[in-house]
Specification:
Layout (H helix, E strand, L loop, with lengths): L2 H15 L4 H12 L7 E5 L5 H13 L5 E6 L2 H10 L5 E5 L12 E7 L8 H11 E12 L5 H8 L13 H8 L4 E13 L2 H11 L12 H15 L8 E13 L3
Parallel strand pairs: 1-2, 1-4, 2-3, 4-5
Antiparallel strand pairs: 5-7, 6-7
Helix pairs in contact: 1-4, 5-7, 6-9
Length: about 260
């Protein structure tokens, strides 16, 4: 995974991200539902525009935990700039950094949360090693990521047009479990979300606005031939149509883990 390209895509999408991030908010809420309130430093890993960080800090305020804080880390400087603007409240420390080389001290966090970010990591094993390192004994690790069935309808529609990679392929649950290692306590959950669109181009436009349209090895689709292929994609997607519109399925894995005491 080209991390520089990923960071640039998400930085460019920062201003438009929240307009189309309903799925991201729903998945973040599902992750928060598994979180057991804790004090100290909470790391929001891959914070994006700061929705999860804002929810965590609001929880601190309600609970009166004035000494607790959120460290909100993201690889994309554009996302951090947008997040700072949208969440100016005290108690959130914004930090640019790489999930696989966290600029944090050993054992400094009581919890690490990450929602729909770690699928962009190059080395998931190193990601889990870093999370283990910065967590205190007994600390929580809660993360969500995408599975291989994500956007399978769009992938199949593109396959009827050409053989290029237009949709990212994500790791299986078994692969994530192997990468996490054997030391954690807890479980992995699998859930599906389905969104509906009037046309395939509306889904593809949304992915671009989210910054999630970066695909490793993707070839540009431009000019007359590109328009013809996009029309083929629209036609190929019609096989999935329902009364609600064209479905876009997201397979989501939730890790609810804890570092042993």
């Amino acid at each position: 995974m080209d991390k520089g390209a990923v960071a640039r895509h998400f930085s460019r999408a920062a201003a438009s991200y929240d307009q189309v991030a309903e799925l991201q908010r729903q998945v973040a809420d599902a992750l928060l539902a598994e979180y057991q309130q804790s004090t100290g430093t909470i790391l929001d890993l891959g914070c994006g525009t700061g929705y999860l960080s804002g929810q965590l800090q609001a929880g601190f305020a309600v609970a009166g935990q004035q000494t607790s804080r959120v460290v909100a880390l993201d690889l994309a400087p554009g996302m951090l700039a947008q997040a700072r603007q949208q969440h100016p409240q005290p108690g959130i420390h914004w930090l640019q950094g790489d999930a696989e080389a966290l600029p944090l001290a050993e054992g400094c966090c009581s919890a690490v949360l990450s929602s729909l970010a770690v699928q962009w990591c190059s080395d998931p094993q190193q990601l889990f090693r870093e999370c283990w390192r910065v967590l205190k004994p007994g600390g929580q690790l809660l993360l969500s990521t995408l599975g291989p069935a994500t956007l399978h309808e769009l992938r199949q529609a593109w396959a009827e047009s050409d053989n290029a990679a237009h949709v990212n392929r994500f790791w299986s649950l078994a692969s994530w479990q192997r990468a996490s290692g054997s030391g954690w306590q807890g479980q992995w959950l699998q859930r599906n979300w389905t969104l509906y669109y009037p046309r395939a181009w509306a889904l593809m436009k949304e992915l671009k606005l989210l910054g999630a349209s970066h695909v490793e090895g993707e070839r540009s689709v431009q000019g007359l031939g590109g328009r013809q292929r996009l029309q083929q994609v629209e036609q190929g997607y019609r096989q999935f149509v329902t009364e609600q519109g064209l479905p876009a399925t997201y397979e989501v894995f939730l890790a609810v883990l804890r570092k042993p005491e």
